[in-house]
């Protein structure tokens, strides 16, 4: 409708507020849905207990705070991210927070790479950019393990960017995690079989398969050759 821009701005304010307020909850993503009178905010986090609090006190507080931000009724749903090591947002944010806490960037990144590969990722790539290690000149540094193919749609790649604010400036942390392929062998097999069956059926209909030349010099009679 006409107030689309207002909703975009409101969504931005909600996300900004939650990311600041729940920085210690290891947020993965925030989904905002709307009806006429209600805003439903779904939060995916590695530490949902931090958001809920004892007996749900924290989540009730959060609802009231979001009401003030939006001037509407707010419903909050919270889901736990079971394997945070495979979530690029959580990994990137964790590295950024460690660097801000003066942990060596190499140590933080190498630990993240090891943890992600340990839980079964096919590969991980992390790039850090800026005045890395307090250097005079900005540069990029890359850390890789396993495979992270970015040239195919089949690869299930999770990507995120986080920013670490340090005394010498800001550092950008990009994370790519390859969880495997979106269509594994088991998923492809039925499709492959049906495609093969369709091709066979096409070849058996009135010689439609004759378009492809045979390697044996056409010694075998084609279907329909004797029906002239």
Automatic annotation (TrEMBL):
Instruction: Note the PROSITE patterns from the entry.
Output: KH_TYPE_2, RIBOSOMAL_S3
Q: One GO cellular component from the entry? A: cytosolic small ribosomal subunit
InterPro entries per the record?
A: KH_dom, KH_dom-like_a/b, KH_dom_type_2, KH_sf_prok-type, Ribosomal_S3_C_sf, Ribosomal_uS3, Ribosomal_uS3_bac-typ, Ribosomal_uS3_C
Do the record's keywords include Transferase?
A: no
Domain of life where this protein originates: Bacteria
Q: GO molecular function: any one?
A: rRNA binding
Q: Which GO terms describe its biological process?
A: translation
Sorted UniProt keywords: Ribonucleoprotein, Ribosomal protein, RNA-binding, rRNA-binding
Composition bias of kind Basic and acidic residues appears in: 207-228
Residue span, KH type-2 domain? 14-82
Q: Where is this region: Disordered?
A: 194-228
Q: Which PANTHER family does the record match to this protein?
A: 30S/40S RIBOSOMAL PROTEIN S3 (PTHR11760), SMALL RIBOSOMAL SUBUNIT PROTEIN US3C (PTHR11760:SF19)
Q: Which family does it belong to?
A: Belongs to the universal ribosomal protein uS3 family.
Q: What does this protein do?
A: Binds the lower part of the 30S subunit head. Binds mRNA in the 70S ribosome, positioning it for translation.
Q: Under which name does UniProt file this protein? A: Small ribosomal subunit protein uS3
Source organism phylogeny: Bacteria, Pseudomonadati, Bacteroidota, Bacteroidia, Bacteroidales
